[in-house]
Amino acid sequence: MIGRFQPDRQLTARMLVTLFLLGLLYVGFVAALLVLLKSTVLVVVIAAALLFGQYWFSDRIALYAMRGRLVTREEQPQLHGVIDRLCATADMPVPRVALADTDLPNAFATGRNADHAVVCVTTGLLRRLEPEELEGVLAHELSHVAHRDVAVITVASFLGVIAGLIVRFAFYSQMFGGRRRGDQNTFAILMAVMAVSAAVYALSFLLIRALSRYRELAADRAAALLTGRPSALASALTKLDGDIARIPSKDLRTASAFNAFYFVPALGAGASLSRLLSTHPSLEQRLAGLAKISAELGRPA
Protein backbone atom coordinates (compact mmCIF):
# COMPACT_ATOMS: atom_id res chain seq x y z
CA MET A 1 0.00 0.00 0.00
CA ILE A 2 1.11 3.57 -0.76
CA GLY A 3 0.68 6.54 1.60
CA ARG A 4 -1.28 6.81 4.82
CA PHE A 5 -4.58 5.18 3.84
CA GLN A 6 -5.63 2.98 6.75
CA PRO A 7 -6.30 -0.67 5.85
CA ASP A 8 -9.32 -2.64 7.02
CA ARG A 9 -8.02 -5.95 8.40
CA GLN A 10 -11.31 -7.82 7.93
CA LEU A 11 -11.69 -6.72 4.32
CA THR A 12 -8.02 -7.38 3.66
CA ALA A 13 -8.45 -10.90 5.03
CA ARG A 14 -11.45 -11.48 2.75
CA MET A 15 -9.49 -10.27 -0.27
CA LEU A 16 -6.57 -12.54 0.62
CA VAL A 17 -8.91 -15.53 0.99
CA THR A 18 -10.46 -14.74 -2.39
CA LEU A 19 -7.03 -14.50 -4.02
CA PHE A 20 -6.02 -17.75 -2.31
CA LEU A 21 -9.09 -19.50 -3.74
CA LEU A 22 -8.24 -18.12 -7.18
CA GLY A 23 -4.74 -19.52 -6.72
CA LEU A 24 -6.09 -22.95 -5.81
CA LEU A 25 -8.39 -22.81 -8.82
CA TYR A 26 -5.43 -21.89 -11.02
CA VAL A 27 -3.33 -24.83 -9.75
CA GLY A 28 -6.20 -27.26 -10.28
CA PHE A 29 -6.87 -25.87 -13.74
CA VAL A 30 -3.23 -26.20 -14.83
CA ALA A 31 -3.10 -29.75 -13.45
CA ALA A 32 -6.22 -30.69 -15.41
CA LEU A 33 -4.82 -29.20 -18.61
CA LEU A 34 -1.54 -31.03 -18.18
CA VAL A 35 -3.48 -34.28 -17.92
CA LEU A 36 -5.75 -33.54 -20.88
CA LEU A 37 -3.36 -31.68 -23.18
CA LYS A 38 0.29 -31.98 -24.07
CA SER A 39 0.86 -28.23 -24.27
CA THR A 40 -0.95 -25.03 -23.30
CA VAL A 41 1.97 -22.71 -23.94
CA LEU A 42 0.27 -20.80 -26.77
CA VAL A 43 -2.83 -20.02 -24.71
CA VAL A 44 -0.78 -18.89 -21.70
CA VAL A 45 1.41 -16.66 -23.88
CA ILE A 46 -1.60 -15.02 -25.57
CA ALA A 47 -3.38 -14.50 -22.22
CA ALA A 48 -0.24 -13.02 -20.68
CA ALA A 49 0.18 -10.64 -23.63
CA LEU A 50 -3.44 -9.48 -23.41
CA LEU A 51 -3.27 -8.85 -19.68
CA PHE A 52 0.12 -7.16 -19.92
CA GLY A 53 -1.30 -4.77 -22.51
CA GLN A 54 -4.35 -4.13 -20.34
CA TYR A 55 -2.14 -3.50 -17.29
CA TRP A 56 0.52 -1.38 -19.02
CA PHE A 57 -1.90 0.80 -21.01
CA SER A 58 -4.84 0.78 -18.58
CA ASP A 59 -4.80 4.57 -18.14
CA ARG A 60 -4.91 5.25 -21.89
CA ILE A 61 -7.52 2.57 -22.57
CA ALA A 62 -9.86 3.83 -19.84
CA LEU A 63 -9.55 7.49 -20.86
CA TYR A 64 -10.12 6.64 -24.53
CA ALA A 65 -13.16 4.50 -23.72
CA MET A 66 -14.70 7.19 -21.50
CA ARG A 67 -13.67 10.03 -23.84
CA GLY A 68 -11.83 11.69 -21.01
CA ARG A 69 -9.11 14.27 -21.50
CA LEU A 70 -6.35 15.47 -19.22
CA VAL A 71 -7.02 18.92 -17.75
CA THR A 72 -4.57 21.47 -16.39
CA ARG A 73 -4.73 23.38 -13.12
CA GLU A 74 -5.81 26.47 -15.03
CA GLU A 75 -8.78 24.62 -16.54
CA GLN A 76 -9.93 22.91 -13.32
CA PRO A 77 -8.37 24.67 -10.30
CA GLN A 78 -10.93 23.33 -7.79
CA LEU A 79 -10.53 19.72 -8.92
CA HIS A 80 -6.74 19.92 -8.86
CA GLY A 81 -6.82 21.67 -5.50
CA VAL A 82 -8.86 18.91 -3.83
CA ILE A 83 -6.65 16.16 -5.25
CA ASP A 84 -3.48 18.02 -4.22
CA ARG A 85 -4.72 18.37 -0.62
CA LEU A 86 -5.77 14.72 -0.40
CA CYS A 87 -2.47 13.48 -1.82
CA ALA A 88 -0.54 15.65 0.65
CA THR A 89 -2.62 14.24 3.52
CA ALA A 90 -2.19 10.68 2.26
CA ASP A 91 1.52 11.20 1.49
CA MET A 92 1.25 9.84 -2.04
CA PRO A 93 2.23 11.06 -5.53
CA VAL A 94 -0.25 13.37 -7.26
CA PRO A 95 -1.92 11.60 -10.22
CA ARG A 96 -2.87 13.17 -13.50
CA VAL A 97 -6.37 14.66 -13.56
CA ALA A 98 -8.88 14.11 -16.36
CA LEU A 99 -12.40 15.21 -17.18
CA ALA A 100 -15.05 13.36 -19.22
CA ASP A 101 -17.78 15.48 -20.77
CA THR A 102 -20.87 13.42 -19.95
CA ASP A 103 -23.93 13.93 -17.77
CA LEU A 104 -23.42 10.50 -16.19
CA PRO A 105 -22.30 11.43 -12.63
CA ASN A 106 -19.29 9.26 -11.90
CA ALA A 107 -15.53 9.04 -11.33
CA PHE A 108 -12.81 6.45 -11.74
CA ALA A 109 -9.09 5.96 -11.18
CA THR A 110 -6.77 3.80 -13.23
CA GLY A 111 -3.08 3.33 -14.01
CA ARG A 112 -0.53 0.59 -13.39
CA ASN A 113 0.99 2.38 -10.37
CA ALA A 114 0.85 5.66 -8.46
CA ASP A 115 3.35 7.31 -10.81
CA HIS A 116 1.19 6.53 -13.86
CA ALA A 117 -2.24 6.98 -12.31
CA VAL A 118 -5.14 9.04 -13.65
CA VAL A 119 -8.19 10.20 -11.70
CA CYS A 120 -11.08 11.08 -14.00
CA VAL A 121 -14.38 12.71 -13.07
CA THR A 122 -17.34 13.53 -15.26
CA THR A 123 -18.88 16.95 -15.75
CA GLY A 124 -22.14 15.47 -14.45
CA LEU A 125 -20.42 14.62 -11.15
CA LEU A 126 -18.95 18.11 -10.75
CA ARG A 127 -22.37 19.71 -11.33
CA ARG A 128 -24.09 17.61 -8.69
CA LEU A 129 -21.73 17.36 -5.72
CA GLU A 130 -20.91 19.77 -2.92
CA PRO A 131 -17.18 20.32 -2.18
CA GLU A 132 -17.18 17.93 0.83
CA GLU A 133 -18.93 15.23 -1.22
CA LEU A 134 -16.48 15.66 -4.09
CA GLU A 135 -13.60 15.32 -1.64
CA GLY A 136 -15.01 12.01 -0.38
CA VAL A 137 -15.39 10.62 -3.91
CA LEU A 138 -11.87 11.65 -4.90
CA ALA A 139 -10.44 10.16 -1.69
CA HIS A 140 -12.18 6.89 -2.60
CA GLU A 141 -10.57 6.90 -6.06
CA LEU A 142 -7.15 7.77 -4.68
CA SER A 143 -7.47 4.81 -2.32
CA HIS A 144 -7.75 2.52 -5.36
CA VAL A 145 -4.47 4.00 -6.62
CA ALA A 146 -2.77 3.63 -3.23
CA HIS A 147 -3.86 -0.01 -2.90
CA ARG A 148 -2.68 -0.84 -6.46
CA ASP A 149 -6.11 -2.19 -7.35
CA VAL A 150 -5.42 -2.21 -11.10
CA ALA A 151 -2.51 -4.59 -10.54
CA VAL A 152 -4.53 -6.76 -8.13
CA ILE A 153 -7.47 -7.19 -10.50
CA THR A 154 -5.18 -7.76 -13.50
CA VAL A 155 -3.36 -10.58 -11.71
CA ALA A 156 -6.65 -12.02 -10.45
CA SER A 157 -8.11 -11.94 -13.98
CA PHE A 158 -5.28 -13.97 -15.51
CA LEU A 159 -6.89 -17.36 -14.83
CA GLY A 160 -10.27 -16.31 -16.21
CA VAL A 161 -8.70 -14.98 -19.40
CA ILE A 162 -6.80 -18.24 -19.97
CA ALA A 163 -9.93 -20.33 -19.37
CA GLY A 164 -12.00 -18.13 -21.67
CA LEU A 165 -9.41 -18.33 -24.45
CA ILE A 166 -9.22 -22.11 -24.20
CA VAL A 167 -13.00 -22.39 -24.52
CA ARG A 168 -12.91 -20.18 -27.63
CA PHE A 169 -9.95 -21.99 -29.17
CA ALA A 170 -11.55 -25.37 -28.57
CA PHE A 171 -14.89 -24.20 -29.96
CA TYR A 172 -13.46 -22.68 -33.14
CA SER A 173 -11.11 -25.59 -33.75
CA GLN A 174 -14.16 -27.87 -33.74
CA MET A 175 -16.20 -25.49 -35.83
CA PHE A 176 -13.65 -24.77 -38.54
CA GLY A 177 -11.24 -27.67 -38.15
CA GLY A 178 -13.87 -30.35 -38.37
CA ARG A 179 -13.84 -33.66 -36.58
CA ARG A 180 -12.80 -37.00 -37.96
CA ARG A 181 -15.25 -39.75 -37.17
CA GLY A 182 -12.50 -42.21 -36.25
CA ASP A 183 -10.86 -39.85 -33.78
CA GLN A 184 -13.34 -40.19 -30.91
CA ASN A 185 -10.59 -39.99 -28.32
CA THR A 186 -9.43 -36.55 -29.50
CA PHE A 187 -13.01 -35.30 -29.55
CA ALA A 188 -13.61 -36.55 -26.01
CA ILE A 189 -10.46 -34.79 -24.76
CA LEU A 190 -11.51 -31.60 -26.51
CA MET A 191 -14.95 -31.70 -24.89
CA ALA A 192 -13.37 -32.36 -21.47
CA VAL A 193 -11.05 -29.36 -21.91
CA MET A 194 -14.00 -27.16 -22.86
CA ALA A 195 -16.02 -28.33 -19.87
CA VAL A 196 -13.17 -27.79 -17.39
CA SER A 197 -12.30 -24.41 -18.89
CA ALA A 198 -15.93 -23.23 -18.83
CA ALA A 199 -16.33 -24.25 -15.19
CA VAL A 200 -13.07 -22.55 -14.20
CA TYR A 201 -14.05 -19.39 -16.09
CA ALA A 202 -17.41 -19.25 -14.28
CA LEU A 203 -15.84 -19.78 -10.84
CA SER A 204 -13.06 -17.25 -11.43
CA PHE A 205 -15.65 -14.74 -12.70
CA LEU A 206 -17.61 -15.01 -9.44
CA LEU A 207 -14.47 -14.78 -7.30
CA ILE A 208 -13.22 -11.70 -9.16
CA ARG A 209 -16.64 -10.05 -8.74
CA ALA A 210 -16.44 -10.74 -4.99
CA LEU A 211 -12.91 -9.31 -4.90
CA SER A 212 -14.13 -6.20 -6.71
CA ARG A 213 -16.90 -5.67 -4.14
CA TYR A 214 -14.39 -6.00 -1.29
CA ARG A 215 -12.17 -3.42 -3.05
CA GLU A 216 -15.01 -0.92 -3.10
CA LEU A 217 -15.80 -1.39 0.59
CA ALA A 218 -12.12 -1.04 1.47
CA ALA A 219 -11.86 2.15 -0.61
CA ASP A 220 -14.95 3.58 1.09
CA ARG A 221 -13.44 2.94 4.51
CA ALA A 222 -10.02 4.34 3.58
CA ALA A 223 -11.59 7.48 2.09
CA ALA A 224 -13.84 8.05 5.11
CA LEU A 225 -10.92 7.73 7.52
CA LEU A 226 -8.65 9.95 5.42
CA THR A 227 -11.15 12.80 5.16
CA GLY A 228 -12.68 12.25 8.60
CA ARG A 229 -16.15 12.81 7.05
CA PRO A 230 -17.88 9.51 6.30
CA SER A 231 -21.20 11.35 6.19
CA ALA A 232 -20.04 13.37 3.17
CA LEU A 233 -19.13 10.20 1.29
CA ALA A 234 -22.48 8.64 2.27
CA SER A 235 -24.25 11.75 0.99
CA ALA A 236 -22.38 11.54 -2.33
CA LEU A 237 -23.24 7.84 -2.68
CA THR A 238 -26.95 8.44 -2.00
CA LYS A 239 -27.12 11.42 -4.34
CA LEU A 240 -25.29 9.73 -7.22
CA ASP A 241 -27.19 6.45 -6.88
CA GLY A 242 -30.48 8.33 -7.15
CA ASP A 243 -29.33 10.52 -10.03
CA ILE A 244 -27.97 7.58 -12.03
CA ALA A 245 -31.42 5.97 -11.83
CA ARG A 246 -32.73 8.95 -13.80
CA ILE A 247 -30.13 8.71 -16.59
CA PRO A 248 -31.61 7.34 -19.89
CA SER A 249 -31.32 3.55 -20.13
CA LYS A 250 -29.46 3.76 -23.44
CA ASP A 251 -26.66 5.81 -21.86
CA LEU A 252 -26.50 3.47 -18.86
CA ARG A 253 -26.18 0.38 -21.05
CA THR A 254 -23.32 2.00 -22.95
CA ALA A 255 -21.50 2.93 -19.75
CA SER A 256 -22.14 -0.33 -17.89
CA ALA A 257 -19.22 -2.03 -19.66
CA PHE A 258 -16.95 0.08 -17.45
CA ASN A 259 -18.72 -0.56 -14.14
CA ALA A 260 -15.62 -2.07 -12.55
CA PHE A 261 -13.90 1.33 -12.87
CA TYR A 262 -16.71 3.50 -11.55
CA PHE A 263 -17.33 4.99 -8.11
CA VAL A 264 -21.02 4.05 -8.51
CA PRO A 265 -22.14 1.32 -10.98
CA ALA A 266 -24.05 2.53 -14.02
CA LEU A 267 -26.72 -0.11 -13.37
CA GLY A 268 -27.98 -0.72 -9.86
CA ALA A 269 -27.97 -4.20 -8.29
CA GLY A 270 -31.48 -5.48 -7.75
CA ALA A 271 -32.04 -9.17 -7.22
CA SER A 272 -29.72 -11.35 -5.18
CA LEU A 273 -28.32 -12.94 -8.36
CA SER A 274 -27.51 -9.48 -9.73
CA ARG A 275 -25.74 -8.63 -6.49
CA LEU A 276 -23.69 -11.82 -6.80
CA LEU A 277 -22.57 -10.76 -10.28
CA SER A 278 -22.15 -7.07 -9.45
CA THR A 279 -18.78 -5.30 -9.34
CA HIS A 280 -20.00 -3.12 -6.44
CA PRO A 281 -21.70 -3.76 -3.10
CA SER A 282 -25.27 -2.56 -2.73
CA LEU A 283 -25.91 1.03 -1.65
CA GLU A 284 -27.26 -0.31 1.66
CA GLN A 285 -24.03 -2.20 2.37
CA ARG A 286 -21.88 0.81 1.61
CA LEU A 287 -24.00 3.15 3.74
CA ALA A 288 -23.96 0.66 6.62
CA GLY A 289 -20.17 0.49 6.45
CA LEU A 290 -19.88 4.28 6.51
CA ALA A 291 -22.32 4.51 9.42
CA LYS A 292 -20.10 2.09 11.34
CA ILE A 293 -17.06 4.28 10.65
CA SER A 294 -18.99 7.35 11.85
CA ALA A 295 -19.70 5.54 15.10
CA GLU A 296 -16.02 4.61 15.43
CA LEU A 297 -14.89 8.18 14.87
CA GLY A 298 -17.44 9.45 17.35
CA ARG A 299 -16.16 7.30 20.21
CA PRO A 300 -13.90 8.90 22.82
CA ALA A 301 -10.28 7.84 22.62
From TrEMBL:
Domain (Peptidase M48) ranges: 75-292
Predominant subcellular localization, coarse grouping: membrane
Alphabetized GO MF terms: metallopeptidase activity
Membrane-spanning residues: 12-34, 40-57, 150-171, 186-208
Family statement: Belongs to the peptidase M48B family.
Enzyme active site: E141
Coiled-coil stretches: none
Protein name per Swiss-Prot or TrEMBL: Protease HtpX homolog
Bilayer topology annotation: Multi-pass membrane protein
Phylogenetic placement of the source organism: Bacteria, Bacillati, Actinomycetota, Actinomycetes, Kitasatosporales
Organism: Streptomyces noboritoensis
Matches recorded under Pfam families: Peptidase_M48
Family matches, as InterPro entries: HtpX_protease, Pept_M48_protease_HtpX, Peptidase_M48
